[in-house]
C-alpha cells in the first residue's frame, strides 16, 4: 500500500471515529444519568456535613469486585482452562499491566480510542494493556524469542460502554494461548481450535459453534468485489459487526459512511451469507471470481488443510467456515475464529440463535515484526478465552442449582465446651496448623458451643475438635462430625491422622 | 484533633512534600540519564528511516516481564503462601486494579504522591491501587461486611524510584491476609504473626526476625516526649526510616525540617533504641514517663497479651518488640509488625545486619469507618507478604543451585520415525489429550527423529511415543524413556495407562 493511500485510509478512519463519537454523545444518556445521580447524592449530603465521606462508595464504571463465592467459581473455571493449556504443553509468562503508550499505538485500528492512558506525571507515557497479544509480541521481539508456546491469564482494559449484566466489563480477564514459530501450515492453528473445543466441552456450557474464516479470503473477497485496497481494513471493521447487527445496517454503513459503491456492497453481501464446512471450501475454490484472486486461493487451500486436521482431531462438526466472520483487530493475517454458545432451546428452528462470543483468535504473522528493529517476523497463532461471559453463565448456573459452594477448605474447627480454655484452644490449633491441617477457631475468649457449631454449619466445616477439662485430663479430644452429630474421643496424638482420614485430604 | 490543627498538619505535610520533591529533583540523575539514552537512540535511528519502529523496546520503568522460568519460581512461592492462607481458613476476594481517585485520597499520608493516576479521558477520575488494604476496606464498607477472613494476591502500583536489583519495583505483587471483625483482643493479631512465621519458615529463606510495635505505644512515646499532637504522623514517618538510615539522620530531619525541639528529639532517641521481648514490655509498663500515658499503657497491656499468645504458638523467639518500628502508612491504629531476613553469615557479630523487609502489617481499626456513610467502624488486622524480594532471593538461589527447572508438565512427546506420518501423529496425540495426558508434538510434517528426541532433552519431557509403519500395522506404540533410552512396544489400548503409571500423575 502506498504512503498516500495509507494516509487516506487513516483520514477516513478518523472521520469514522468522529461520526461514531457524535453518535455516542447523542446516545450518552447513561453517562448523564450517572452524573445526575452523583449530583443528587452530593446535594443530599450537603445538609449533613458531619465529617463523613461525601463520595460515592463504588467501584469504577465497568468494573466489579469478586467476593468469595464468585472467586470460588472463577478458580474452578481457571483451573479447567489452565489444565487444558498445560495438557498442550504450554509454558506461562506474565507482563506488566501497562506498556509504553507507543507500544500499543497503531495495533488496534478503530478500537485504539478505547485504550486507557495513564496521566503524565513525569517520565514515560503509559497505557493499560488492551489485550495480551500485543504485549506478547513485544515480549518476543524484546527477548528475541522465535519459538514458544505459552499461556497468559491476566486482566485487560477497554474504555468500552459496558453491559455488565451480559458479562461485558471495562476490566476483564483474558486467557490466552499462543504458538509462536515458523512451522508447517495449519498444524498449530488446528491445535488452537482443538483447545477451544476442549475447554468449552469441559466447562459444560451447552452447545457451541466455532466460526472460522481467513483474512486472506476476506481480502480476496473485498478485492474481487471491487473494494479499493485502502478500504479493506475499515470495511472489515464494518463486516465484523455482523454478529450483532443485520446485513442491511452494515450495508448502509459501508455505502453511506464509508463510501463504497452499492455494487461492491452487494457483492460482499452475497459472500458473507455463506457458511458451511469442507464442501463450501471446495465450492469457493471453484468460484469464478474468488478463484482468480491469489490471496483468496491461498486462504482457501489452507482452510481445506485445516478442515482435514480438524477431522483427525474429531472436532470438525463443531466448526463452521463462515464468510461473515471478520474480527475487529488490525493485526490478523491468516485464519481467524470465534466461538459462540448456542441458545439452549427445546423448539426446533433451523438457525439456532447465538448468545455471544466466548473465545476468539487467529493468526498474526506480522505483529512481532512491527516491534523488531530489523522487522524480523515471527509467525504466531493464538486463541483467547473470554472468561467474563463464562463466569456470568457459571454464576447463573450455580445460583439456579441447589449446590452450596464452600468458600474455604477448612477441615476442622477447634472448639471448647467450657470457659477459660482459650489458651488450650490456641495450643491445639497451633499443633494442627503445624501438621498441615486446615483449622479455624472463633476469636473469642469464651465462645458458646452452640455458636461454634453454628459457624461450622454456616461455612461447611465438616469436623469440630472439642476440648474441655475432662478431655484435657484424659489426653483426648472429642471429634464431632458436623453432619451426623456423632462424637468420638480421639487420643490427642492420633488426632491429626484421624482428621486427615476423615476429610480425605493429603 | 480540632479542624484547625488538622489543617495545619496538612499544610506541614504539603511543605514536607515540597522539600522532598526538591531533593528528588536534585537527585534525579537517573531520569536524566534515561532521557539522554532515549535521545541518543532516536538520533542513531534517524539516519535509517526504513519504516522500522523508532521507539524503545522495553517495559515501563520499574516493571518487568516474567518468563517461563521466573513464572515457575513465582508459582512455587504463591502455592506455599496460598496453602498457608487456606490452612488458616481464609476466603479469597479480588478487586479492580484501579479505584476512584477519591477512594485513595487521604489514606497514605506522605506516600500519596507515589500514586499512579489515570488520564482524564472523560468520566470518573481513577487511580491505580497503591496497596490491597484500602480497596479491602472500601469493599467491606460498600458491601456492609463486618466479619471476614480473606486473602488477596494481586499487583499494586507505586511511582517510587525502583531499585530492581534489590527486588523493588513500581509494579509488584502483594499477598495480603486480613481478619476483619470485632473480636477479643490480640487473638487475630497473634494469628497474623503466626502466618508470617509459617510462610517464612516454609520458604526456607534463612533466619528471620519479626519486629513488632504498637501505634499507641509510639503515640504515647511522642506525647510524653513533648511532640505536639499535630506532628505525630509526620514524626512517625521520619522514625519509619530507621530501618534504612541512622538515628542521627532521622534526628536532624525531625529537628531541622519538622521543627521539633532537640529535647523532644533526644527523648524519642532514647526510646527508639529499645528492643526486646516480654521483659521489655514489663519494664516499660513501669517506665515513669510512659506509664503515665493512657494510650501507651493500653498498647503495652495488649503487647503483653500478644506475647503470651505467641508463646502458646511457640514462635515468640522470632518476635522482637522494637520501639523503632513505625511503619509509614497513616491508617494503622494498634499493633504493627515487619519481618526482616537476617543476613546469612559465618562470623559471629552481636547484631546481625538485616537484608530488608519481606512482610509487614498491623491493625487498622479506623479505615473501614472512613468509607462508611455513618462512620461505622470494622476493626481489622492484617499482614502483607512482600513477594518481590522473596522472588529475587529464590531466583538467585535457583540459579546458584544446579536444579533444572521444568517450565511445562508435558508427559510425552508424540513422535514418528518415518516421513508422511503427520496424520497418524495428529490422531494419536488427539487420543492422548482426550484421555487427559499432557502431550506435545513438533509442528512439522516430517520432523527428524533426532530433533524430536533433542526437544525432549531440552524441555525435560520424560517419555516419547514413537509410531512408524510397523507399529501402526502391529497396533502398538513404541514408548521410549528419554533418560534411560529404553524402548518398549505398548499395545495402543494400554498406552494411556502406561504413560500415567510411568509419570506418576493422576
UniProtKB/TrEMBL annotation, chains A, B:
Q: Which GO terms describe its molecular function?
A: ATP binding; histidine-tRNA ligase activity; identical protein binding; RNA binding
One GO term describing the cellular component: mitochondrion
Q: Which leading EC class covers this enzyme?
A: ligase
Chain segments annotated as coiled-coil in the UniProt record? none
InterPro entries the UniProt entry points to: aa-tRNA-synth_II (IPR006195), aa-tRNA-synth_II/BPL/LPL (IPR045864), Anticodon-bd (IPR004154), Anticodon-bd_dom_sf (IPR036621), His-tRNA-ligase (IPR015807), HisRS-like_core (IPR041715), HisRS/HisZ (IPR004516), HisRS_anticodon (IPR033656)
Q: Which reaction does it catalyse?
A: tRNA(His) + L-histidine + ATP = L-histidyl-tRNA(His) + AMP + diphosphate + H(+)
Cite the CDD domains for this sequence: HisRS-like_core, HisRS_anticodon
> Which residues are in the Aminoacyl-transfer RNA synthetases class-II family profile domain?
38-415
- One Pfam annotation, family name? tRNA-synt_His
Q: A biological process (GO) annotation for this entry?
A: mitochondrial translation
Q: What is its EC number?
A: 6.1.1.21
Say if the entry is tagged with keyword Ribosomal protein.
no
Instruction: Please provide the record's keywords in A-Z order.
Output: Aminoacyl-tRNA synthetase, ATP-binding, Cytoplasm, Ligase, Nucleotide-binding, Protein biosynthesis
Q: Which residues form the WHEP-TRS domain?
A: 4-60
State the similarity comment: Belongs to the class-II aminoacyl-tRNA synthetase family.
Give the matching HAMAP family.
Answer: His_tRNA_synth
- What name appears for this protein in its UniProt entry? histidine--tRNA ligase
Which source organism? Alligator mississippiensis (American alligator)
